[in-house]
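Interim report, section 4.2 (structural modelling).
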Amino acid sequence: MPELGRAALFVCFGLAVYAAVAGFWGAHTRRRRLSRSAQNALVAAFVSAAVATGVLLVALVSSDFSFTYVSAFTSRELPLAYKLTALWGGQEGSLLLWLLVLTGYSAAAVLLDRKAGRELVVWVVPVLGVVAVFFSMLLVFVASPFDTELAPADGRGLAPSLQSPYMQAHPPMLYLGYVGLTVPFAFAMGALLSGRTDERWIVATRRWTLAAWLFLGVGQLLGAKWAYEEVGWGGYYAWDPVENAALMPWLAATAFLHSVMVQEKKGMLKVWNMLLVILAFTLSLFGTFLTRSGVLNSIHSFTESSIGPWFLGFICFVVASSLVLLFKRLPLLRSKTKLESLVSREATFLYNNLLLVALCLTILWGVTFPILSDAVRGEAVTVGRPYYDFFLRAFGLPLLLLMGIGPLIAWRRASLSSLKRVFFWPTAFALAVGVMLIALGAGSSVPGLIAYTFSAFVAATIVLEFARGTAARRSLSGETVPRAFASLIARNRRRYGGYVVHAAIVLLAIGVAGSSAYNTSRSARLSPGQSLEVRDYTLVYRGVNSTRAANAIEQRATIDVYKGGNRIAVMHPGKNDYPVEQQISNEVSIRSDWLTGEDLFLITEQINRNGTIDFKAIINPLVNMIWLAGLVFVLGSVITLWPDAREERRLAIRYGRVAPEPSA
Amino acid sequence: MIALSVAAALAVFLLYTSIAGGGTPALRPSSLAGHAGKVSLSGRVLKPVSGDAHAGGLRFRLRDVNGTASVPVVYRGSVPDLFRAGRDIVVDGRLQNGVFVAVPGTMITKCPSKYTPKKT
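Predicted structure of the assembly:
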């Protein structure tokens, strides 16, 4: 069996090399047959990667501990679902998943986007091939998932904290996102290589970028939810380098998604878009590198890691070669139009981009600073939460405001009277909300107050946009309100789907600001019968129970929760003791109030022999808005991703006329 | 226009570093000597671990992960699940009279499955 896996990977490597070399030569010499066979090699590479993945999955499910990988990440007792998802539990399996997703995306992109113009696609194939060569080479020569050993009696099992449905879904989501960014990157490079630098590569990859961005976003929210419920310190994001590794490419992709609209509409920012797509792809490689190379431990363990230097080399190669290519094609990328006014839609897109990229780069600086300072001064210096929080406010709050301004401002040049007309009501509403919040005591946190006022402004502009659009459709077609509303969205998916995503970001901002700027936490040592007051809750500790479960001893405290004199809940925060794994896991108890979005978050920090507990209670206002934001985010993205026959026709006409497909 | 914005972003950046004064040095027990200010110390927890993190303080020695130098640590506040003798942790604090007094609640354990490259 391991031989089959190794053979499949080797075949995949050979096919990837062929796709890269033959693809390049075929495109260079304009031999259609050769280019065609390179495309087919990519599809075949997907099949052989799938075979290799299948072999590993069979080994995982059948607990074949002669596979080093299987014995390292599973055990006999592990439920089937976790045996399957152990596929991405370790380095080798994760790389295999990367390769599988990459070849799958490549095959699909090449097959689906043939229409984008043959001259472009023939150059995309070798770029995808090169990336596939890198990953298959790692799997064949450096980090093989098919290493074998004398089978031990049982495997080492999976850490209890990772045995969570969120942790099953979170890594593949991130990989779908990371790898998905390869497609727009390959098309961008294809456009540069072929000299077809019009907007076609953007049109062909818009959905790919959106999908990758959606997966990255959802993957991060799943990770945040896991951290909130399983890790149990009361938060959901700690600016950990591993978390930042996923946030950075998402921010770069967000900037890219916005700035391509300017290129589509105005033919501007061509070089900038190329830079953004290179940045997004490089950061997705960098994210994989960060989480998998051990560089975070220290710069010294990085050199001990098998794949670290390879990754660093490949990242340098990607950056250098794509920048050289971009530089060579600069004359083709001159924009025909210029920015006419600093108060216009184009300009707000530009501000949005600069802020997103600035935020992304400051995070990158924070992540790499310990590594750089270690390399330069021999002493690692870390930047902590205050650093990131400062820049999230400095760049994030203006971004939030722009989200309300951008969609309403006119293209080219906005007049003062139009600004007044458009922004009067949203501004009035935001100010009213701000005053009301101060009256309610929200002034205790200035950033929180600003975030809420801006959120109110953006929410008002979104509601107004939907209301105006619906009214316009009604007067045009005489439809009923719900029908007009539905057809408004259906006829303009990109625009109104985008507004829905903006609404999700508003919810996210409300949730983040609420839970970080207005949370309350108290801790105390309690004996049975004693109580702790937290804001308007009274928490009475009753005692601790201990029960034996299948693989753990579960200790649970009983806490009666009173609010306004009534007992509203009984909660059981506690700890699990896993004797086999020799691990203790904190099992927090969370009570969500669905009306206010507030969470009561209870942690039993320590259970003492004399029956007392060290107990911590946190109130996280509005934190549930974050999870709600996730659902709205998916809804908005799906609306914009939904196939739109009308738009396809429009684009076909546009690009059919502007640049006719050369007949071969 | 772009140059102006980049300059603005840089200005914000410099403003921050001048106010907050950069980051926290990340040290090992062997390199701790001579640092009076707040540092972030990483190392391996040695037996015995005594005391109470929620009363008088948890006491243990922290040793270089690849070395022999060690320093006594006293810590108060939340203790991560993975904390145990033999594990690698990171904790903020400062050296006072030969004892590393940790800032309450700053202990982080390095998750072995996530960070360590596999050594075979």
